[in-house]
Amino acid sequence: MFIEIEDLKPEPLHVHHVFQAGEIEFSREDAVLNEPVTADFLLDHKNGDLHITGTVETVVHFKCSRCTKEYSKAVSAGFDLSYLPQPEWSDQNVEVELKYEDMEVAFYDGVAFDVNLMVLEQIELAIPMKLVCREDCKGLCYQCGADLNEGKCSCTGETVDPRLSVLLDFKKKSDK
Ligand SMILES: [Zn+2]
Ligand SMILES: [Zn+2]
What we know:
By secondary structure, the chain is of the alpha+beta class. It has 2 domains: 136 residues, no CATH class; 39 residues, no CATH class. Helix content is 20%, strand content 36%. The chain contains 3 helices and 9 strands, in the order βββββββαββαα. The strands form 2 sheets. Strands 2, 3, 4, 5, 6, 7 and 8 form a 7-stranded mixed β-sheet that branches. A hairpin with a 2-residue loop joins strand 3 and strand 4. The longest helix is centred in the C-terminal third of the chain and has 14 residues. It is elongated and about 70 Å long. Bound molecules: zinc ion (2 copies).
């Protein structure tokens, strides 16, 4: 979805759009987006400078970093962004860059604004750092690989350091 800047009316544009599954997608080892995405935002503009505020909502499929089980979770983001036409490189534009140095500003080509790209970036930013199927996920047994959320495996509690077990054997023998 592109918004042609020359087609914009002077007043702010309200966009409510549902992207179908597959229209916006990404795939990484621990997260896959292949669900519909709802975007709702207000686009204000002046001389090609865009100011966009709104929300995106979707569901992302994750892989738990502890137990490796796949799970789905709603992801939503609220944003307030400014986009400026990409400046040509000249002395004049160095001033433009300095002017916006402290603002969160991105650039676009000044002709058509790529909504899909913005939505994708917002979803990626909204993905949590820690991916766990639930806060208290117990993960997998590091010895046998059993999912400890489904109960204890036979090796739980028998995790004796091999070096220590030699000492225990020695102690047992000497106790006799
Ligand atoms: Zn888990
Ligand atoms: Zn085990």
